[in-house]
Q: What sequence folds into this?
């Protein structure tokens, strides 16, 4: 498949996920936009963010591409779970829309493939497949997604408050071996510069870092735990 210029621009680069959990002090579109701009100044090649207000605010503040998603719910498919959510992300300004690529049931009854095809028919957008397994990655490639990511390979959202087992290298290696040259993104548990360097050395197209850069509550707890050991 042809790789878009935007996706080409991400090769070998850092993508920063700028998100805050419900109820947190930083959960405000302007705050997220300020943080995204700070990350852009630090060298982020793209920003990944969630929610229509955050997408619009960040798009208005930053020059780098925005990977947008809309989380609804906490179980099953909650990352951009329906076509309606995906179209809304595009309308809010997302350059790339991230979709849960698993085969789990979706609220609107569509399959992942049906969602991708319907989105293509309605919108001129790039699509990122957030994957849990190698089967999800295969599904994302087969139905024409522009990027695939290991976002869900730890069986939970990539933004995680615990500093534990690091990025999922085995699934990254398998995806790279099966789809040489395809944009395979590593996301999830990339908490340190060493983690990011590791996945890039493995051959990832790009790396997404969230908690390790943009979640000060987690970062503070890691430091606190270390000094109290």
A:
């Amino acid at each position: 498949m042809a790789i878009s210029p935007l996706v080409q621009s991400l090769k070998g680069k850092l993508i920063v996920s700028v998100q805050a959990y419900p109820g947190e002090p930083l959960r405000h579109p302007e705050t997220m936009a300020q943080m995204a701009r700070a990350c852009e100044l630090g060298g982020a090649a793209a920003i990944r963010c969630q929610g229509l207000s955050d997408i619009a605010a960040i798009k208005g503040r930053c020059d780098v591409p925005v990977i947008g998603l809309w989380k609804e719910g906490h179980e099953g498919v909650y990352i951009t779970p329906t076509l309606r959510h995906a179209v809304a992300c595009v309308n809010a300004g997302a350059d790339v829309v991230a979709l849960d690529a698993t085969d789990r049931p979706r609220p609107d009854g569509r399959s992942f493939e049906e969602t991708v095809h319907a989105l293509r028919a309605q919108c001129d957008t790039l699509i990122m497949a957030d994957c849990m397994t190698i089967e999800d990655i295969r599904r994302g490639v087969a139905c024409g997604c522009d990027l695939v990511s290991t976002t869900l390979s730890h069986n939970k959202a990539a933004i995680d408050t615990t500093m534990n087992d690091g990025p999922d290298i085995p699934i990254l290696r398998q995806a790279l071996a099966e789809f040489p040259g395809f944009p395979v993104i590593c996301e999830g548990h990339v908490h340190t510069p060493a983690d990011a360097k590791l996945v890039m050395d493995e051959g990832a197209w790009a790396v997404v870092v969230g908690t390790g850069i943009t979640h000060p509550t987690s970062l503070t707890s890691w430091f606190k735990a270390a000094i109290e050991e």
Notes: The beta strands are 13-17, 46-50, 66-69, 96-100, 126-130, 147-149, 184-187, 206-209.
